[in-house]
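protein under study:
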Amino acid sequence: METMDVRSMVFSKLAEHTTIDQTESGADNNQQFSDLNLDSLAILEVLYDIEDYYSITVDSSELQKLTTVNDLITIVNNSLANAA
């Protein structure tokens, strides 16, 4: 799975829960979830959507590392690599 594919999926799912710009020009991997006004429940909803889409399970110990959009992209990429 290409990183860009995961990045696009993450931004697409975030856009469903926030006003984040999912276009390449407006997307910022370093945005904090708190800056996007996402609480822990909203982050979990985004993560569950992504898990369902890719048929993966993210280890619960990874959830504490989620503070930025890039963290989520990395964790999803790692989960995909481990599932392969």
